[in-house]
Amino acid sequence: MSRIGERFEMLRERGEGALVGYLTLGDPTPEDSLKLARALAEEVDVLELGIPFSDPIADGKTIQGATDRALRAGTTPEHCFRIAEALRAEGTEIPLVFMTYYNIVLQYGEERFVERCRRVGVDGILVTDLPVEEAEGLRRICRRHGVDMIFLIAPTTTEKRVQRIVRKASGFLYLVSLLGTTGARDRLSELTIEKTRWARRFADRIPLAVGFGISKPEHVRAVLDAGADGVVVGSAFVRLVERYGAEAAPHLVRLARELKGGTLLDVRLAGAEKQGL
Description:
Layout: H1 3-13, E1 18-24, H2 30-41, E2 46-50, H3 61-72, H4 77-89, E3 96-100, H5 102-108, H6 110-120, E4 124-127, H7 136-145, E5 148-153, H8 159-168, E6 173-176, H9 190-200, E7 208-211, H10 217-225, E8 230-233, H11 235-244, H12 249-261, H13 265-274
Parallel strand pairs: 1-2, 1-8, 2-3, 3-4, 4-5, 5-6, 6-7, 7-8
Helix pairs in contact: 2-4, 2-12, 3-11, 4-6, 5-6, 6-7, 11-12
């Protein structure tokens, strides 16, 4: 079992859901990004690190802004590998995941990219714009190097295709719970709950994590109660970096602790009791 699988299994045994926290690497600068990632890594269960790309088609305004700041600061994939390597050298033990786009991997070289991930301690990769039908070569490279390849499913994904993706995915299955791009929302959509229950039926051999639009502890509790094993929170963290820049660390920690509280079983049971469920 991979480090990602072990983490989800450990949390399941403790009655907790997983909090996957996302930051864009290089925002506001590569040096500051390492400090912020270090702080967030102390509070989340899995750290997802975005490699900035000039055409981030899956991302909304918040993460696009972070990507722009990172690129203007001169961030390259090499900086991203070095940040991951530094986190491991400093003692970070939680799973690390790179979120990226296929052009980054292609230009770096698939084999070289995955092998470098393994060497610096990155446990999984999520290539947002690479469909499962075109990913077999990269997936085989990942398997050979012991790196999980995480796939996305969306509200519009057919049941037949979900079953195919589940067979190919490792680490966890990432449900994009809303149509559109990333971005924190004030209210949790009913579609998110509905699609979480729907996806749960298929994710029997792999953990299910739900992302897009989750920004509050009550969102976390609702998604986990609907059957998810974890939640992915990105834009809510990135907005803090946008606001506070290099001084965002204590604000990231505070939000992560609030969100993590929503993953605890006793907190979720208390919330259900309060609502008379």
